[in-house]
Records
---
Amino acid sequence: MSARTSAGDVVAPGSGVIEVRVAELRQLFNSIDPSPFRERDLDPRAEAFIVDWARELPHDAPLALLVHLERACGPADEAAMLADAIHEYFAQRALGSRRQLRELFRRGRISLAIAVVFLAVALAASDLIGSISERRFAAVFREGLLIGGWVAMWRPLEVFLYDWWPIRAEARLSERLSTMPVSIEHEPRASGDAWRSDWPAVASADRPFAAR
C-alpha cells in the first residue's frame, strides 16, 4: 500500500490534533459564500466539528488541524492557502466574540446605572412612606418598593457575574484556532488531476464528515 503524503505546517509534539476526513477541500467551506477563498466562511458542519473537538482538548495544549484528504496533492501552496482561510475565519470569529463581550459590558453598565437609580428611589420612597404612615397597606407598599428595587439589580448582576465568561471562553478558543498549524494528508492512490474539480473550492459536496 502506498504511503500517504503530507503537506503544510509541522505539528509540534504534544499538540492536541483535530482530525477531519473529507473527499475534497471544498467540503470544508460554505458553498453559498461568494467571498474570495481566503475570506470564505467554513461550512457550519465543519466549524461545529472542529470547535467541538477543540473544546474537548486540554485548555493548555496547543491545537493543530490535520485534514485527511482523499485525493492526491494539488497546487504546491494549497496547504498554505487552506491554513490562511481557516486562520482568517477563526480570527474573525474571535473578533466577533470580543465585540459581543464589549457590547454585553456596555449594556451591563447601562443596566447597572438604571438599577442603582431605581434602587435609590425605591429606598427613599420606602423610608418616606414609613415615616408618614404605619398602616398595614403602607407597610405592604413599602416592602413592595424594597423588593422591586433589589429585583432591578438582578440583570446587571447577571451580566457581570455570569454572562460574560462563556463569551470570553469562546473568544479565547477562536484565537487558539486562528493560530493553529494546519496540515493536509493526501491519498496518493487517487487521481493526480482530482484537485482540478476541487480547487479553488466552489461548491459543497454532500459527503458527511468522518466520525472520530
Note: Residues 201-208 have pLDDT under 50 and may be disordered.
---
Amino acid sequence: MRRPYVLFASALIPFLALATLNSAGYRYGASDQAFYLPAILYKLDPTLYPRDATLIVSQAKLTVVDEVVAGVARTTGLPMTALFAVLYATALGMLAWAAVRIGDLIYRTDWATGALLAALTLRHAIIKSGTNTLEGYFHPRQLAFALGAMALASFLRSGRSPAAPEPWRRGAAPLILLGLMIHPTTALWFLIWIGAAAFVSEPKWRPVLVLGGAAGAIAAVWTLIWGPLQGRLSPMDDAWRATLAGKEYLFPLGWPLIAWIVNLGYVPLILWLFSRRRAAGVALPREKGVVIGAICLVAVFVTAVLLQAMHVALAFQLQPARIFWMLDFLATIYAVWALAEMGGVRERRAAIVAAVVFALSCVRGGYVRFVRFPDRPVVQFGIPDDDWGRAMAWARTTAVSSHWLADPYHAAHYGTSLRVAGQRDLFVEEIKDTAIGMYDRPVAMRTSERIAALGDFAALTPTRARALADQYGLDYLVTEQPIDLPLAFSSGAIRVYRLR
C-alpha cells in the first residue's frame, strides 16, 4: 500500500537540504527581500523610512503579506530572522507535500514520486521571466506557488471519484484565495489555470464558474477604473518604460528567438506526454482540464503581450512571462512520468530514475554551493558579522531620520540592502528601486532622476558628495573608497563618512 504521509515525512529533510544547496544556501535579507522586509519593518515601526515610505508602499499596498507577517511577528514575538527562516521552510515543505500528493495521483510507484521531489530541488530560471523555481531566501511568491501547487493536487484528487469533495468548496479555492493575499500575480495564474480546468472537467459547475468569473471581472473593472488600482489601464509612456529598459522579463516583444522557443516549447511537450498518458489509460479524470487550463495560460500571456504593444501599464505590471513557471511545473511532472513509467510500470526502472535524479541534485547542489559560491554559508539566519554587517549595525544606532548614500549596486556586492540591514532611508538602490518603479510612475521618475544625479559612484568626489547631500538631505556616505570627508565609522574595508 502506498503511504504518501510516510513518503513525505521521510523525504522532507532531504528535500529541504537539496533545495537549499541548489539555491546556494539560505540567506536572510537577500535579493527581493529588499522589497518585502522594509515593508514589514515599516508596519512594525512607522517611524522608519520617513523618506522612502512612498517608494516602499507603492508595491506593499498591492498585497497584505507585509501586514500579515508584521502581525505574526508582533503576536509571537519572534525576531524577523527566525520568522523568515520558518516561512522559508514552510514554503518548501508545502511544495514538497503538494508534489507528494500529485505524485500519489499521477504515478504508480513511490519511486516516481521521489524522482519528482528530487527534480523540484533542481533550481533553475524560467527563461526571461525574472523568476527562479526556487530561491535561497523566503519570497512570498514561493509560498503562493506552493499554495497553488497544493490547490492543483486538491483539484486532481477530488476529481478521482464521483464521491470526492468538490475542490471549489473544499481545498483548491481557499488555497488560491490565500495565495492571492500573499502574492496576487502568482496566485492569479493558478486561479486561471485551475478555473479553466474546472470549466472543462466539470460541466455541472460551468454556470457557477461563469457567474463567478463575471463577478470577478466586474470587481476587477471597478478596482482598475474607480478602485485602489485605478489608472493601471492607462498607457505606460515612453519615459516610464525607459526606466524599466533593463528588466527584460517585462518586455517579451524584445525577447530573442531562443526565449520564445523554450517557453512556448512547454506546450507541445505537455500535449505529447498527456496524449501518451491517455493512450496508456492512466490519465486522471480531470487531467485533460489541467492541460487545457495550462494552454489557457499561454493564451493569457499572448493577450498580455498584445496589450503591451498598446503600452497598457497593467500588462507590464502583471509580469505575464511568469505564467511559464506553471507550465514548467506541469512539464516536470510529466517528464518524470515519461522517464519512470511511460511504456510500462517497473519498480526497478522507477527506482533507478529516482536515484539518478537524486544524485544529479546532490552533485549540482554541491557544485553550486561549494564551487560557484564557496564563501557563502549553507545557512545565514541573520545579517552576517562581517565588515558590511558591522557598518549596518552602526547605521541602526544613528537617527531614524538619517539619509544614506551608497553604491547603487551595494546589495549585489554585500548580500543585503542598506534598507534591510541598516533600516535607514537610502538615496537609491538601482536594481530594486527600478523594479518597484513599474508599479508607480512617480517612483520610477524619482529613481531615474537619482541615478542620473549620482552618476558614476566610483568617481564620486567630496565636492560632488556634499552637493548631493545639500540637494537631497543626505547624512552619511558608505563606501570602500577613501574620500576626503569626516570619517564616522569604519570596519575593515567599509568606511562611513559624514556628509553634513
Note: The beta strands are 26-27, 125-126, 131-132, 379-380, 403-406, 425-426, 476-479, 487-491, 494-498.
---
Amino acid sequence: MHRPENAAQLSYFLLHPVCRGIGLGKKLMDLYMEFLRERNYASSYLWTTHEQQAAIALYKKYGFVLTEEKPSDAFGKPLIEQRFDLTLNK
C-alpha cells in the first residue's frame, strides 16, 4: 500500500500452513523487494505481532528493523504489536 513520503506498507503477508517451510515466503519477499526498487520507494514498513517469530526472522533478513511496540488486544487476545521499518538505499 502506498503511504506518504514515498513509503510502502506491507500488509497481509500470509501463507497457508501447508505452504510454509518450502521457500515461498522468501520468494514473495524477493518479489516485494524488487517491486519496491522498481517503483523507487524510499522506505517500507509493516506491522506484525510478537508471536510471528518465523515472519519476523524473515523480515530481519531483508533489513527490516523493529521501531515500535504497543500492547494490543485487536486479535482477540493480549499481545504486542510490532512495527518494522526498512530504509532503501538509492
Note: The chain has a mean pLDDT of 92.
---
Amino acid sequence: MTLSLAQTKLGFASDTPSPSWRTKTAMPTSRGQAAVVAGDDGLIYVMGGYDGSNVLSTVEAYNPLADMWTTKASMPTPTRGAAFAKGSDGIIYVISGTNLGYVDTVQAYNTTSNTWYTKTSIPVAAWMASAATGNDGRIYVIGGESTGAFRSNITQIYNPSTDTWINGTDMPTGRSELGVVKSSDGLIYAMGGYNGTAISIVEAYNPSTDTWTRKASMPSPKVEFGIALGPDEKIYVIGGGTSYVNNDPPFLNTVEIYDPKTNTWTIPGWMESNLPVPRKELGAALGNNGRIYAIGGAFYGYTNYNNEASIILPENVPPKAYIDSITPNPSTEGETVSFVGHGSDSDGSIAAYKWRSSIDGTLSTAASFDTATLSVGTHSIYFTVKDNDHSWSDEAMAVVTVNINYTEDPNYQQIVEANQAIDDLEQQNAQLNNKIDNLNATIDDLNRKLDLMTIELLGAGIVTLILVGVTIAVVYITRFKKPPQTTL
C-alpha cells in the first residue's frame, strides 16, 4: 500500500507516517564511514568503510526489488570516510579518505563491467569530506579533515571527462564530518559537520556562479549523519551524533527534512518516522524505487543495519498554461507567425512545453517560437505545459486564421488573365492608332504635295495666259499698225 501511494501520488494522508521505516535484509559486512551510492542499474552499492578494527575494501550491492545482497569487485585501495558521488556517466567515484594516513586516491567503479580504475589524485587529500555531482557533470568535493586543514573549507572540483582538478571558492565555514547533497534547484548544500564542535550551519554552493549562500540552519547540530535527496525533492538528514570521536555517543534516530523551495526545516511527529536504530557514521541513498535506504553505521559497535524509508508524496497541483499572444492573426499563407506562451506551477516549476494545431499537429516544444509553415485554414491552437512532477496542464486554446495567398486565388488568376487581355488589346489599339497616325501623316504629306502642284499649275497657267496675251499683242501690232512715214 505504501509503495502504491508513493508511486501513484494519490495524495498525502495526515494520519499516515512519512517517512515510515521498516527493516530489510542486513548487509553482509558490518561497517560505518562507507561510501553508499545508488547506481544506475538500480542497485545500492556500499564501498569500503571501517569495521572498528580494519579499513575495508569490500564492496557489496543491495537489490531493493529482491531484498538481497551480492559481493562485487573489491576496491584497489581500502579507505574509510571517503567522499563519493556518481558521475553523470554512471561511474561511481570514491575520493580520498584515510587508511593509516590520508589517502589522495580517486577510485572509479564501473557498475556494468564490475571493474575499478584509478584516476588523477585529488590535490588535497581529505578524510570525512563530502561530495556531490553538479548539473555540469563535475564532482564537487567539499570540506573534510586533512594535513593542511584540520577543518577544511576548500572546494575541490573534479572533471571526469578530462580527469582534472581545479579549485572553487572556499566554503565560508570550514568543517569535516558534514553532509553534502545536490538539490533539484542545482545548488549543492553543505550541512552540519564538525569545526571544533558539532554545528548546524547550512551553506549552499552555486556551481554556475562559484558562490556560496547561507541558508536556514538545521534544527539541531550534528555530525556523521546520513543524507539523501528524497523523491519529493526535499533533503533528508538521518541519524548522526554530536561527538567527533568514532563510535562515541550520543547516537541520534531523528529525521530532519529540509525544503530547498521554501528554505525551511520540519521534523516529522510520528514515532514511525524515526530511524529504527539510532546511529551515526551511516550512509543513505535514494533507490530507483523512490525509497530511502539507511545502511550501516555505528551504535556502540559497527552495524550492518539496512532500513528502508517510504516517502508519501503530497498530491501534485497541476500547472497552468497561458497563451500570451499569436501575431499576426489573421495571417496569410507563408507569412511568419509568432507564438508566445508561459506556464505557472504553484508547487513546483515548469519543465516542458508543447504547442499543437488542429490542422498541422505538433508545432513546437518551446515556450515561444516563430513559424511560416502554417497551412491555410482556421486553426485551433492548443498550448500545454508540464511541471517538474511530470503532470501536464489543461490545454489553453486560441483560434488562428491563415488565409490563402491572393496570388493563388482562382478569382485572382481570372483577374490577372483579364487584365492581361486588356493590356494586349490596349497594345494592339496603340499599334493601330500608330498606323492610323502614320497614314494620316502620309495623307497630310500627299495633300501638301497636291497643294504645291496646284499652285505650280496655277502659276504656269497664268504665265501661259500672259504669254498668250503678249503674243496676241505683238501679232496685232505687227500686222495692223502702220509704220511711220518718212519725209524726203
Note: The chain has three domains: 2-310, 320-408, 425-488.
